[in-house]
Amino acid sequence: MLTDLHATVADWYTAHARDLPWRRPGTTPWGVLVSEVMSQQTPVARVAPAWEAWMGRWPEPADLAAAAPADVLRAWDRLGYPRRALRLRECAEQLVARFDGAVPRTEEELLSLPGVGAYTAAAVVSFAHGGRALVLDTNVRRVLGRVVAGRALPPPGLTAGERVGAADLLPADAATSVRWNEGVMELGALVCTARAPRCTACPLVERCRWRRAGAPPATHARRRQAWHGTDRQARGRVMARLRELPDGRTLGTEELLAPLREGAADVAQPDRALASLLADGLVTEPSPGRWTLPG
DNA sequence: TAGACGTGGCG
DNA sequence: TCGCCAAGTCT
């Protein structure tokens, strides 16, 4: 029965949930939103200390909205995808301007905020407000894909079939749905992992269709993410240099790009990286040929 | 919708 | 060692 499945996962979560800082009593909806944005494509272990420092410095949306982008980018440090930091700050500005400094409760309103997509909107409704929402992240997709569909790994793109299947499993009661969302996500993060699933520790082994079929390997090839020698790597090196720069100081173009010249995929790559960072608002050129983080 | 977008740790 | 992968979003 579905009720039995929900209870099994909820009980497992109660016994095994990690003590993540944003799960502690007293965490505000803003704190939950910050944790969700930081956790987009970044391992939770690296997010936890950054989140504590961040919330200590900018405890309310209004605090972050008033911060200088340079400070925000330095505080983001090496969480990766620094555009998220800028979007989070813009999000804080909109919370102040449009929602009286509060985090909205509906998915539609949340989706209208920068840096908030389908997953994050659902997660905030569920984990920050206790509402009923379909949380479908990579963990949930993998767990349901294995248990229900018998697939080793979910397809590259979220399919309509997955959405319908997950929606059928979502408890009707709000409080129960929150426990289900938390539980399935945590199960995917700790037990039903992508590489070496710990099936012997899984509360769902008996009813896992993938496991019962002998845990067959993935069929489709995973899309490999290019990295070495890419523009993305070059952008990361530029940002790393600028983060180290003392406040108010600038770097000349050659001084900034020299470390990238050697080993660049092509001669234009360093300049291309810098230009794209400028276009993204991640760097500024306060005077011709001088560079720094956006004030 | 496929591709761009950081960073580091683990198997 | 090195490819895979991590609570996605945006265009």
Architecture overview:
Belongs to the Nth/MutY family. Its EC number is 3.2.2.31. The chain has helices spanning about 1-15, 30-40, 45-55, 60-65, 70-75, 85-100, 105-110, 120-130, 140-145, 160-170, 175-190, 210, 230-245, 255-260, 270-280, and strands spanning about 250, 285, 290. Strand 2 (about 285) and strand 3 (about 290) form a beta hairpin. The model has no long low-confidence stretch (mean pLDDT about 95). A 3-stranded antiparallel sheet has the order 1-3-2. It contains 15 helices and 3 strands. It is globular, with a radius of gyration of 22 Å. With about 300 residues, the chain is mainly α. It has 2 domains: about 1-225, Endonuclease III, domain 1; about 230-290, Arc Repressor Mutant, subunit A, CATH 1.10.10.10. The termini are far apart. The structure holds a DNA duplex (11 and 11 nucleotides).
